[in-house]
Amino acid sequence: MSYKIYINGEYFDKENAKISVFDHGLLYGDGIFEGMRAYNGKVFRHEQHMDRLWKSAKAIHLTIPMTQAEMMKAVDDTLALNDLRDAYIRLVVTRGVGTLGLDPNRCATPGVIIITDKIALYPKELYENGLEIVTASTIRMPSSSLSPRIKSLNYLNNIMAKLEGLRAGCDEALLLNHQGEVCECTGDNIFIIRDGKIYTPPVSAGILEGITRNAVIELAAEAGIPLFETTQTRHDVYIADECFLTGSAAELIPVVGIDGRPIGDGKPGPITKELIRRFREMIA
Ligand code: PMP
Fold first, then answer.
1. Residue 271: enclosing H or E segment and its boundaries?
2. Other CB atoms within 10 A of residue 196 CB
3. For the segment 141-150, what is each residue's pLDDT rounded down to a tens digit?
4. Which atom of ligand 1 has the smallest separation from the CA of 158?
């Protein structure tokens, strides 16, 4: 099935969904994006995604050429046009068409792209059995260089780590920051559980403030499970009882091994399973 793709207010078939080679999104990775999910015809935490997109835009000095309400309508319209009720949505805002130089002021209008599709990021077995990850030697981009809170089109830092993961036979890789503290995986936030308590790195470690991460923080509070946003080291992950990752695409997925060491007994743990159950209830 080929779904129609929204580009600057018009819809195109996949084969014809094209942008200029002079778009700075392509030339420099100058732009921002969101990855969202629709469940039962409703975009999950739509407003929060808009809020993050607009904050990313502000940080890179980019004016999105529409209001948040117009953007949300464009997303809803694209889903409706494609008759998609459960979908993954990739919303991209590029700096727009410019010259070969870096100067963003030469890009007249930002480009807006909305791609909607069905996805299954990981096979079903991995949600039941958990996945293995590896620590990458690639360090997460320090906030002082480019804040990981900006969801920018420049994902090379993450891709370098992803390549390391794939070379090690793992679907995800863990990035540490320049101080050796745990940050996040290449496209997911990380949580660990020890002695009945949940821990996740603080935003100040240099991570993307995930929408799913925030949902899990709420779910843990509802479930009465203590959760701490505190600095984690790789050692903390090694000695954790349980571990899981969160992301719009991945949702919640158990991690059962890291760097060749089993986490806990090497099986998804009870708190992880309980949070997955509660998350499914939340999106239902
Ligand atoms: N960290 C990174 C680097 C990401 O790219 C993503 C999104 N794929 C996440 C975390 C998870 O964020 P969210 O829950 O908002 O999808």
1. helix 270-283
2. 10
3. 999 999 999 9
4. 3
Element (H, E) at 282: helix 270-283
- State which H helix or E strand residue 218 sits in: helix 211-223
Query: Can you give the pLDDT at residue 36?
Result: 98
Residue 45: the pLDDT is 98
Residue 165: which H helix or E strand, with range? helix 156-167
The set of protein residues with a Cβ atom below 6 angstroms from ligand 1 is: 35, 158, 184, 187-189, 208, 210-213, 246-249
Distance 100 CA to ligand 1 centre (A): 30
| Helices and strands in the chain: count of H runs, count of E runs | 8, 15
Proportion of the chain above pLDDT 90, given as a percent: 97
Task: Report whether 258 contacts 238 (CB < 8 A).
Answer: yes
Which sequence positions are flagged as catalytic? 151
